[in-house]
């Protein structure tokens, strides 16, 4: 297999963590996005759940790996370990759950403590229950202004704006990759065997030692120039 063929087969994989209090719609969001289904029956996430979906963004093949983390304090020590290596983040709250809104900054800090600054958005969920809201829009606007993060107003139940959340995060991550490629145009490629290091053992034999992969990020070695696919029409959404 030639080097060019290997380059064409590389895809961008993005780890996205979805955080927020319990019952704000995190599990429903990734189920809706990855499987196209919605269930109103709430089941507490135990630890971490995981789904993935492959999409095309700006003619680039992208595989989104979505990590649904439990929002309950009893699972906090478990789920924080899964933040490591995250490359994008969704911080969700429900407009009918005042506590979930007030916890937003805490969730933001928890993620940043583990992974630093990564592409992040706020998701104001359950907009289909706007008549029952317990959060004033001015409070939300102030939060967005102070944090300088994009806000998506979603209804997972009615499938409003859910796709746009993850498309935006993928675009932001690809922009960061482009910037890094420009800064380091000759950066080495990372392959499957690069996760292992061969070291001499007393000059007689060699042993395989696995490196810490928590800091390894697979990056595309070449931007693709595929033709654009026809995108599905999306319902109107509100983005601030």
SSE arrangement, N to C: HEHEEHEHHEHEHEEE
* Major sheet summary line: 7 strands, mixed
What is CATH's topology name? Rossmann fold
What does the overall shape look like? globular
| Percentage beta strand | 15-25%
Helix/strand class: alpha/beta
> Over all CA atoms, what is the radius of gyration?
20 Å
Mean pLDDT: 78
CATH class: Alpha Beta
What count of structural domains? 1
Please write out the topology.
Layout: H1 3-9, E1 12-19, H2 26-35, E2 48-57, E3 60-69, H3 76-81, E4 88-94, H4 98-102, H5 104-115, E5 120-125, H6 137-147, E6 150-153, H7 162-183, E7 196-201, E8 205-210, E9 238-239
Structure description:
Helix 6 (137-147) links the parallel strand 5 (120-125) and strand 6. Mean pLDDT is 78; it is low at 1-7 and 187-236. With 240 residues, this protein is an alpha/beta fold. It contains seven helices and nine strands, in the order H-E-H-E-E-H-E-H-H-E-H-E-H-E-E-E. It has helices spanning 3-9, 26-35, 76-81, 98-102, 104-115, 137-147, 162-183; strands at residues 12-19, 48-57, 60-69, 88-94, 120-125, 150-153, 196-201, 205-210, 238-239. The chain starts with a helix and ends with a strand. It has one domain (3-177): Rossmann fold (3-Layer(aba) Sandwich), CATH 3.40.50.300. It is globular. A seven-stranded mixed β-sheet has the order 2-3-1-4-5-6-9, with helices on both faces. This is Ras-related protein Rab-23. Keywords: GTP-binding, Nucleotide-binding. InterPro entries: P-loop_NTPase, Rab, Small_GTP-bd, Small_GTPase. Pfam families: Ras. One of its GO terms (molecular function) is GTPase activity.
């Amino acid at each position: 297999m030639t080097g060019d063929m290997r380059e064409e087969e590389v895809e961008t994989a993005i780890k996205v963590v979805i955080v927020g209090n319990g019952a704000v719609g995190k599990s429903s969001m990734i189920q809706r996005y990855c499987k196209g289904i919605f269930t109103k029956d709430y089941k507490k996430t135990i630890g971490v759940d995981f789904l993935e979906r492959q999409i095309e963004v700006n003619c680039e093949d992208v595989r989104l790996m979505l990590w649904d983390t439990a929002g309950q304090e009893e699972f906090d020590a478990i789920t924080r370990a899964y933040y490591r290596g995250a490359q994008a983040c969704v911080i969700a709250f429900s407009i009918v759950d005042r506590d979930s809104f007030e916890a937003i900054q805490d969730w933001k800090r928890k993620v940043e403590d583990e992974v630093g600054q990564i592409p992040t958005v706020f998701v104001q969920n359950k907009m289909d229950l706007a008549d029952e809201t317990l959060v004033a829009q001015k409070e939300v606007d102030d939060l967005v202004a102070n944090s300088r993060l994009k806000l998506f107003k979603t209804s997972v139940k009615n499938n409003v704006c859910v796709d746009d959340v993850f498309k935006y995060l993928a675009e932001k991550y690809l922009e960061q990759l482009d910037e890094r490629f420009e800064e380091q145009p000759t950066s080495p490629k990372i392959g499957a065997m690069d996760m292992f290091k061969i070291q001499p053992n007393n000059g007689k034999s060699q042993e395989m030692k696995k490196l810490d992969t928590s800091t390894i990020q697979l990056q595309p070695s070449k931007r693709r120039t595929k033709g654009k696919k026809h995108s599905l029409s999306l319902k109107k959404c509100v983005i601030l």
